[in-house]
Amino acid sequence: MSRRRKKATTESLYISEAQKAFVRKYLMKNRRIRFYQIIILICFIAFWEISTHLGIVDPFIFSSPSRVMKTIYEMTIDGMLFYHIGITLLETLVSFALVNLIGLAVAVILWWNDSISRVLEPYLIVLNSLPKSALAPVFIVWLGNNMKTIIIAAISVALFGSIITMYSDFKAVEEDKIKLIYTLGGDKKDVLFKVVLPANIPSMISLMKVNIGLSLVGVIIGEFLAAKAGLGYLIIYGSQVFKLNYVIMSIVILCAIATGLYKLLSYFEKKYSR
Amino acid sequence: MSELLKIDHISYTYHSLEGETPALLDVSFSVNEGEYLCVVGPSGCGKSTLLSLIAGLLTPSSGSIYINGKDIKSSGKNIGYMLQKDHLLDWRNTFKNVTLGLEIQNKLTESSYIQINEMLNTYGLITFRNSYPSELSGGMRQRAALIRTLLLEPDILLLDEPFSALDYQTRLEVADDIWGIIRKEKKTAIMITHDISEAISMSDRVVVLSKRPGTVKKIFDIKLSVDNRTPISARSAPEFKDYFNLIWKELNHDEQKA
Lengths: 274, 258
Fold this sequence. Notes:
The structure holds 2 protein chains of 2 kinds. Chain A has helices at 2-11, 17-53, 59-62, 65-77, 80-112, 114-129, 136-143, 147-171, 175-183, 188-199, 201-226, 231-240, 244-272. By secondary structure, chain A is mostly helical. In chain A, helix 11 (201-226) runs parallel beside helix 12. Chain B has a single domain (3-217), classed as Rossmann fold. Chain B has helices at residues 47-54, 72-75, 94-98, 100-104, 110-122, 138-150, 168-184, 196-202, 231-234, 240-257, and strands at residues 3-16, 19-32, 36-40, 62-67, 70-71, 79-82, 156-160, 188-193, 205-209, 216-221. Chain B is globular.
């Protein structure tokens, strides 16, 4: 990145008027797009708030932006908000880390041994296509009503697809690059560490971007069924006792968390891609 | 010049579920030390298979290959292999790319750094030491690939159409470049090409293979009367077009018979 930027700045010492106009136009367009994005958000919030005040929708069922803000404020004061967010985040990050580690390890084993990969192929396909929410009740029975169940449920959502994608990415490495390692006197271990893994860092990071979202989905499903805390628990609890403020607030916070985690990975992606 | 490599009646057959495909049939020739040998033949005649066999990546179905009179498996001699494309790894800079082979063979020591820098310097890559492959020209990439191979100090260098991925003008320049380096390092080289002019301009001898299954049709000794022979100057030798016609006929004769 930095190298490329350096080149760009040395060239940009001699900018023509036409180039300046082009850049200005480009920036204007960017600003206009950002403006409309914000307008949509403001309109949505305003419309929601006003319609609850005018009685078009019932704030008891639909909540309202001001009620959500008030709930966030109250729950921040008594500390409950960060407790629930913390639980959900912890579960998500643990599942995410385990999915990536286990996924990578299994993908490497499958890549290493063609026989194992062919034996396991049908099982992976079945497990990948199975709706994982069907498994969650089973996990509760087996593992109990606790965090372990939630993490296992979340892992089951993301793991199998992750293994399949990573394995096929490993397989897609150019045949001649592998031959190169052998001509230089390397063995299969060198092929793995010098070519297959480094060549797949970009694809592994984009897979992580998918996995972080899926881990969050899995955690929320798990919390719906087997939790005493967390945002998923708050959603279920709120809907059962008709405190829709809790539900909407949790959804808003989930939006923020999901976006935040995705952006974090995008940042790493940019940092590591040349 | 003493005989370095002897290829003794080798055959090779590929097997797949659709059946077997004989790629090489009873191929024999030898290569002298310091010689630059080119192998030409129609596409699909098993040229690349031949190099893979010499490099020990494949084992011949029958026949043997000897280096200095010993079987290649036990000779302990180093064989360098240059693939069709440079295959520099995008995520490594020039220095890390040329040292890949040493790294794999655990030969990267403090003292090798001096030699590496010397080579990068001699072949005009020292200022690009920390550059990534995407920033190098086609010629520089090819030179880096050659240095990567030469650092392993091979006794024989195998080149599998090393210039085929380059455009024509670059190709002539790089051929001159690479040829100069190989001569300077006094290496024995076997190069595969389908370009007859390239073969004549670079080599001491040209081996013509038939179409599949490949067998040796004829071997030409290339003797050109030019001073300071380089691949470029060789092209203006009076004998050049005669060799071209002879090899062309040899290759074409094969087509008509089929």
